[in-house]
Amino acid sequence: MATSAVPAAINALLAILRAAPGLSDVLIVDGPAAVNLTDRHRIYVGWSPGAEQVVDISQDFSYAGARSRNEDFSIACYAETWAGDEDMALRRTRVFELLAAVEVALRATDAAPEAPTLNGTVLWAHLTAGSLVQEQNSDGALAGLSFTVSCRARI
Q1: Contact, 145 vs 136, CB < 8 A?
Q2: Confidence of residue 35 (pLDDT cuts 50, 70, 90)
Q3: Is the N end or the C end of the chain the one with fewer CB atoms within 10 Å?
Q4: CA–CA separation, 123 vs 116, rounded Å?
């Protein structure tokens, strides 16, 4: 019996995002940023700048008798897009397009009926929070969007 659904849920979220047609030109990163940041559009799963932790977890018994537990958790994620120009409106629009593609990837469709359950690893998963950051410097414009994927699992 697993003590947490978090590892399987993160792996499933990565697989879903990497297979999402709307994210085909986006680098999907597992965890914190690597040294090579040449890709202009990135989504990090299990990392967000400034976050003290990548997953918040709480558990409680699901029923009397203590045979199973409900696990609620939130996975920190971060979408980022940058370009060498100064067009902040374009960067902001693009980062929200990335977020929309994540949201679409987590919805049930005929082709992916298990997406909202992260391929059966949780009871449900959905976007629940976000925070936009913008930056202009000598390298150009950057827009980043920290977001949370919240889940409930039965363990």
Answers
A1: no
A2: low
A3: N
A4: 8
